[in-house]
């Protein structure tokens, strides 16, 4: 009985389907991307906290994004790197570890949306209500928005995973490169209508809220810019909002692709590849877009390298 219980708790991950020759290239690519994600995002957080001129709500809220990107990449990428050189029959993962990874993966995905919503609110206040901006967007407000961005998703994902772990399991094979909620409840032979219903409701609520808030905010911002005769306001709005909107479009596009591909089992290889690329591409793009697009951060990075050059 102990051996049967142990075997039931050991799952098999399918992993990425790569040939032995391409596994080395895939390993090098993912490793370099992971190193870049860690260095770039952690570097941006350190830079923002060290430079007092960057202690503004927009940049402090952005720190949440960088922390979340480091968190999401660390949950998935090292595990995939290890499995690239492990045979198909030896890609084992304990059920508890799989549940923790699934929780973190879903938490990461949800927090991406809620953080972008908090940044949308910040841009709305800065452009549409500039006179009240400093009164409303205080340090305490930044803290509350940051906590809310993580706490709401934490609660929702906790409910999502609790509905999954209550199910009995009749399978051991995870048809994915890493664990997520959808892969876990597919292990059960029970009725998973509740899981599908709550999962779909959660996705609709999350994506609908983020899409609605971003759409309404940008319509309001566009209206303000059209009415404004000041070129400075229009330029600032275009610069900051273009960066935010680019990240949002990329995030929504990748999220919809993964959700759609989950509904087509015969496209599992495509889903795994898209999911893996998203885990490294989005965090890397986040750092590049914000690091190079936002003038204040770009100037600080250039000044930092110039300072090091003079010291050498």
Brief summary:
The protein is an all-alpha fold and 312 residues long. The protein is built from 11 helices and 3 strands, in the order αβααβαααβααααα. The longest helix is centred in the C-terminal third of the chain and has 35 residues.
Report on the architecture of this protein.
The protein is mainly alpha-helical. The chain has helices at residues 2-8, 20-50, 57-83, 95-128, 130-136, 139-165, 181-185, 193-227, 231-262, 268-293, 295-311, and strands spanning 10-13, 92-94, 173-174. Strands 2-1-3 form a 3-stranded mixed beta sheet. Helix 4 packs across helix 5. It is globular and about 65 Å long. The termini are far apart. The relative contact order is 0.13.
Key features?
312 residues, mainly alpha, 11 helices, 79% helix, globular
The rough form would be described as globular
Order of helices and strands: HEHHEHHHEHHHHH
Radius of gyration: 22 Å
Rounded mean pLDDT is 80
What is the share of helical residues? over 70%
How is the secondary structure organized here?
Blueprint: H1 2-8, E1 10-13, H2 20-50, H3 57-83, E2 92-94, H4 95-128, H5 130-136, H6 139-165, E3 173-174, H7 181-185, H8 193-227, H9 231-262, H10 268-293, H11 295-311
Parallel strand pairs: 1-3
Antiparallel strand pairs: 1-2
Helix pairs in contact: 2-3, 2-10, 3-4, 3-6, 3-10, 4-5, 4-6, 4-8, 4-9, 6-8, 8-9, 9-10, 10-11
């Amino acid at each position: 009985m102990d051996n049967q219980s142990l075997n039931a708790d050991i799952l098999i991950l399918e992993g990425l389907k790569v040939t032995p020759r391409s596994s080395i290239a895939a390993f090098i690519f993912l490793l370099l991307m992971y190193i870049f994600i860690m260095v770039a995002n952690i570097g941006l957080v350190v830079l923002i906290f060290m430079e007092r001129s960057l202690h503004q709500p927009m940049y402090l809220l952005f720190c949440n994004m960088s922390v979340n990107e480091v968190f999401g990449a660390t949950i998935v990428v090292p595990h995939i790197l290890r499995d690239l050189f492990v045979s198909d029959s030896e890609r084992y993962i304990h059920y508890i570890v799989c549940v923790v990874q699934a929780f973190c993966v879903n938490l990461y995905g949800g927090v991406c949306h809620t953080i972008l919503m908090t940044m949308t609110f910040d841009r709305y206040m800065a452009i549409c209500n500039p006179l009240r901006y400093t009164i409303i967007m205080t340090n305490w407000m930044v803290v509350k928005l940051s906590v809310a961005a993580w706490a709401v998703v934490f609660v929702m994902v906790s409910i999502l995973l609790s509905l999954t772990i209550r199910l009995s399991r009749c399978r051991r094979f995870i048809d994915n490169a890493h664990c997520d909620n959808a892969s876990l409840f597919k292990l059960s032979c029970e009725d998973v209508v509740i899981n599908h219903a709550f999962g779909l409701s959660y996705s609709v609520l999350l994506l609908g809220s983020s899409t609605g808030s971003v759409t309404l905010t940008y319509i309001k911002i566009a209206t303000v810019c059209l009415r404004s005769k000041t070129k400075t306001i229009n330029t600032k709005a275009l610069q900051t909002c273009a960066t935010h909107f680019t990240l949002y479009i990329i995030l929504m596009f990748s999220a919809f692709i993964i959700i759609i591909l989950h509904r087509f089992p015969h496209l599992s290889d495509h889903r795994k590849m898209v999911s893996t690329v998203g885990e490294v591409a989005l965090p890397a793009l986040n750092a590049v877009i914000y690091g190079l697009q936002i003038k204040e951060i770009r100037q600080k990075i250039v000044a930092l390298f110039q300072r090091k050059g003079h010291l050498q």
